[in-house]
Amino acid sequence: MSAFHDDNYNLSSISSQEDSILPFNQKRHSESFGQVVRSEPRKEEGEIEDIHSGYVRHLHDPQTSDYRNPDGSYIRGNNAEEARLDPLTLQGKSDHSVVKLPPEIAKTINNNILSLRVPSLIRERAAEIYQALEKEQIQRAPVSGLDSDAYIAALFLQDYANVRKVLVELQKRVDTFNPDSVLDIGYGPATGMVALNELMGQDFKPSVKDAYIVGRRNSEMKRRAKIILSRQPCEVEAQATASGKKAKDYVGAVDTRKIDVKTNIRDSLSSESKYDLIIVNQALLTREHSFPRDVDVNIEMVLALLNPGGHLVLVERGNPLGFEIIARARQVMLRPENYTDEKGKIPRPYIRGSKPKPQKLRAEDQLITEEHIKMEEELLRKIQAEEKGIEDEDLEEHLNSKYGELSEDDLKFEDEEEVEVLDPSESHKPSYDGVDYHLSVVAPCPHHGKCPLQLGDPYLYKVRNHKHRFSFCSFNNVVERPKFTMELKKGKKLASSWDKSKLSKTERKAMEGSGRPGGNNTESADYSYLIMQRSPNDEASIKKIESDREHSSSVEEGPATWPKNVKLDVCAASGNIETWQVPKSSGKQTYHDARKARQGDLWPLGKKTVSVKSRFSEEGMARLKSMAKSQRNIVLKEKRKKEWKKMTVKDPALLEDDSEMDPATLNNIYAAKFTSTKKYRQQTKRHDFDK
């Protein structure tokens, strides 16, 4: 131990570890205490080899990385997370960035639209819009100027963010996305056109830019659309842009008669116009009780305006009604029930949009009809009866002597060369020769089959006391709040409630340090969407679609991570909702990318195991419809009771100055109300009381 404390102790003088007098000399070299200090002199003498020396990076070494170029830029992707993804995974990634409304547009809305109103009135009307949207799940067309301002304050930000996200997805899926004619349809101030202009930049100048604002009294919304569009460089001339910069801080009303923008705000849609891009933003259904008739009529009208090779973008709110609207429009365009055996994404013929229609074979044009078969059977019976008793060996001689010998031409059928004989055991699809209208899905569906989540009736989601929880296809979006939105949601009307007494101890602890609930500078929005393309049905298009990456399955929900395993719920190309397991044994890159997958991404790297989620059974659907019918009847009965109660209770408006009316007058008033009811008119018509 004296040698251990000796100041002249030299570690380099020890020739080997066996000669060491240190107390840990029996340990392996890699586990020894102070090995870095002790190993330096031994490495210099060449006695040991440091296998980890290659991992040590010194200041004078050049900058090297598997994900960066020598200049420090990323080899692929825009950030460190994307740089580490597989190229196929990165190609299937959706845009998950936070959407920001351009500052010029936000300032214009605040200074030239909302500043003209009393803030309390805007908040009150916005609260009514949110309540109606929560109850009816569908937007209403603004009527007055105050309604238009409240609509812009409450819904424009989320609508803009949702449409922009969908257009970014379309731009990513289509290599050369530059439409020459655009049509935007919606309730708002040309929201789709505003989002498209911001996405394409100031050099975006197509030959046709039309916007149709839905609603009978839409003049106020048209004025506000011109104000917002005038703040985009691609909408105005260069001189107007320069003069607009001087007045960008102007606060007050704007005379829209002096504003000239390139987008034509249309009063109606022309059936003669055709467009390369049509954006329909929450405008397929006007009333919930009109589902699905309104959807069928409106989608047929919109498809008639689409150019060959053009794209149709449908955006709805991310609730059950919005999803069912999208699913119904998809069903009308693709008709998956007629192609149960077809896989992939081959363009489907859209018969209603095609000029030449496939004609069914008429009875008079058929070569062989039922009458011909019956006549042949009758002739056969007569011949058998006539030749009865003749021996089989004498039958041929008897027929030849009576009718003459047969030649080869007599044995042929009429027009035999023109008749194609079909095997009845084989299935033959109808011929669509001449159909010039074909549609295919661009996003988000990876197949053209029946939607596995579609129920067909939005009311089924409202059935109470049902154990099954229905999923629907929707996507989440995050948008940064501008100043006018923050100002709108101040106060008691629209601010988030903050009551600690209703929260458990665990919930309060989880919220520590996160600030006031709802007090973030961002807000979340859910949306459902569908992108369709009109394309030819030739062989080249089919080969292109089959080889496209669009056959990758779409991630429906974020990954569920387990130890050394990742589970992904995807909408697969088979047409089912499947759970894919991607374990760590699939590979380092595949496992890493699976953990980074998010909702809406395409997953191209495969899976280890698959489990198909069972669809809602026919028995369950019948039971659900029965429950929905019963619930609807209960609601109608309660409504009728309330109406009858209002009719039978004495009306306070009829009593003025506390003076009671005579019974005869009240009797006449209530009798008039009763005879005006629907039930009374039906009973009167049924029993012919009016005669």
From TrEMBL:
<feature type="compositionally biased region" description="Polar residues">
    <location>
        <begin position="9"/>
        <end position="19"/>
    </location>
</feature>
<dbReference type="InterPro" id="IPR052571">
    <property type="entry name" value="Mt_RNA_Methyltransferase"/>
</dbReference>
<feature type="region of interest" description="Disordered">
    <location>
        <begin position="497"/>
        <end position="524"/>
    </location>
</feature>
<keyword id="KW-0479">Metal-binding</keyword>
<keyword id="KW-0496">Mitochondrion</keyword>
<feature type="region of interest" description="Disordered">
    <location>
        <begin position="1"/>
        <end position="48"/>
    </location>
</feature>
<protein>
    <submittedName>
        <fullName>Uncharacterized protein</fullName>
    </submittedName>
</protein>
<dbReference type="GO" id="GO:0008168">
    <property type="term" value="F:methyltransferase activity"/>
</dbReference>
<feature type="compositionally biased region" description="Basic and acidic residues">
    <location>
        <begin position="39"/>
        <end position="48"/>
    </location>
</feature>
<feature type="region of interest" description="Disordered">
    <location>
        <begin position="542"/>
        <end position="561"/>
    </location>
</feature>
<keyword id="KW-0411">Iron-sulfur</keyword>
<dbReference type="InterPro" id="IPR029063">
    <property type="entry name" value="SAM-dependent_MTases_sf"/>
</dbReference>
<dbReference type="GO" id="GO:0006412">
    <property type="term" value="P:translation"/>
</dbReference>
<dbReference type="InterPro" id="IPR015324">
    <property type="entry name" value="Ribosomal_Rsm22-like"/>
</dbReference>
<feature type="compositionally biased region" description="Basic and acidic residues">
    <location>
        <begin position="499"/>
        <end position="511"/>
    </location>
</feature>
<dbReference type="GO" id="GO:0046872">
    <property type="term" value="F:metal ion binding"/>
</dbReference>
<dbReference type="GO" id="GO:0003735">
    <property type="term" value="F:structural constituent of ribosome"/>
</dbReference>
<dbReference type="Pfam" id="PF09243">
    <property type="entry name" value="Rsm22"/>
</dbReference>
<keyword id="KW-0809">Transit peptide</keyword>
<comment type="function">
    <text>Mitochondrial ribosome (mitoribosome) assembly factor. Binds at the interface of the head and body domains of the mitochondrial small ribosomal subunit (mt-SSU), occluding the mRNA channel and preventing compaction of the head domain towards the body. Probable inactive methyltransferase: retains the characteristic folding and ability to bind S-adenosyl-L-methionine, but it probably lost its methyltransferase activity.</text>
</comment>
<dbReference type="GO" id="GO:0005763">
    <property type="term" value="C:mitochondrial small ribosomal subunit"/>
</dbReference>
<feature type="compositionally biased region" description="Basic and acidic residues">
    <location>
        <begin position="542"/>
        <end position="554"/>
    </location>
</feature>
<dbReference type="GO" id="GO:0051536">
    <property type="term" value="F:iron-sulfur cluster binding"/>
</dbReference>
<keyword id="KW-0408">Iron</keyword>
<dbReference type="InterPro" id="IPR016522">
    <property type="entry name" value="RSM22_mit_bud"/>
</dbReference>
